[in-house]
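Sample entry (556 residues):
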Amino acid sequence: MADLSNIGRRWSRATPINGMSAAALLVAALIAAPVLAVGLTIFQPAGETWDMLSSTVLPRYVGNTLMLGLIVAVGSMAIGVPAAWLVTMYRFPGRRVFEWALALPMAFPAYVLAYAYTDLLDHPGIVQTTLRDVTGWGPRDYWFPEIRSLEGAGAMMVLVLYPYVYLLSRAAFIHQSVRALDVARTLGCGPFGAFFRVGLPMARPAIATGVALALMETLADFGTVAHFSVQTFATGIYRAWFSMGDRIAAAQLAGYLLTFVLVLVALERTQRRAARFQTTRDVFQSLPENRLTGWAAWGATALCGLPVLFGFFLPLIALSYMSMVGGHSFFGPRYIGFAINSFVLAGLGAALTVALAVLLAYAERLSPGKLTRAANTFASLGYAIPGSVIAVGLLIPLAAFDNWLDAWMRSAFGVSTGLLLTGSIAVLLMAYVVRFMSVALQTVEAAMGKITPSMEQASRSLGEDARGTLIRVHAPLLRGGLLTAALIVFVDVMKELPATLIMRPFNFDTLAIQAYRLASDERLYQASTPSLAIMAVGLIPVLLLTREIRRSRPGS
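Predicted structure, serialized as tokens:
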């Protein structure tokens, strides 16, 4: 196998692929350009708006953003890691169901969960209304947690983001060494000792990655914090852009938020480098069957069941009731239009993102040098960047170009071109490519890594060039991986709110925009209809991911 790999590398280096490498570098540069544009705004002179923001609300933005991150990090680990260990290593009532059910809240965007719980727990909601009816209390006779708060927003995000930690932790636990666990038990470690001394340290890189992904989604969130009136960098960027009309101030806020993200990415990668473990050959041995009984069994069932109840089934029931009582008809003309817009954007975004991901992955496979690896690394940074930051990074240079072109056409030909690029579908699709390239690229690279170099050599010996090999050899073998990547990007685009909200063309609304707009007007019952549609689409990749993780180890 080693000789075959070396042959593949020599063939790759000998193959003339300058055109494909150049195209990959161009794509990576275009994807990295919005991030660079935002980063450079930090060094621009501050205006009056920025001076006002920095002296009044900027400390609040920083404090609220950090507090939200802390709540999500602690909450997602507290739920995701124990749940992953229990369903992987123990047998208890409902365990087979919880294997996939614990990932279901991932189908909900956090802002949709916020709409459901606002209707349930707010002062006029069913919970407090029932409490007053039963006890006869007045509004000031009791204390009830305020859902529209920083803590409420953190709880919503924990409920929908802990599956990141759960899925990655479960994948790490599934592939852990049975021998290491057996040695720990023979040395006197009980179940908890084996978990803390062996299982947890070996899964630390995966846990760190899951927490980092949850934190990145927290920084990117706009709909939840806007609905709960929590002032963070995401809401500040939107307010500076649209309410104050100062794009430079919005870009500078985005630049400081970008520093948060880059620090987070650096910490996560440092953590992974500091803790690496190789999968042992006993991966084909079945994991131990530790059966829980009595209170321990029912405690495990409760620990795994409560996140599923509060993160999926309770909001699903609430949204379904709201939709039946006061929701809109999903088959009405307006909602059909919203659905078409959403599916068109998601379909085009998924197709474009996956196509470019194939180009980047194939270029690195043919020419695995530092240049192509660096290009793919830069192209993958977008997933760590909030949609609002990407929108600002794209719109500022494009608006400047549109204004320059319009002024030149007026002076030269007396014709106004207007805004050709700003507010167009093409630029919105570009934002989706920047935002979700990492998801598609990782999936495509994993699928392409399973194709042996001998297949490329055989294709080359039969007279095919690199392009023909990609179309006739790789494409059929990559079909499953490409479908998975496209499906994940499709759902992510359906749920994406800040970038779509800022960059969509005039009078071009999607299901996510409609849900946000109705909820902003406190029309929560009407907002339930598009929210349910978004959730239904999001279920598909969640179920696929859980199935693939379970199948990754025989006997599990």
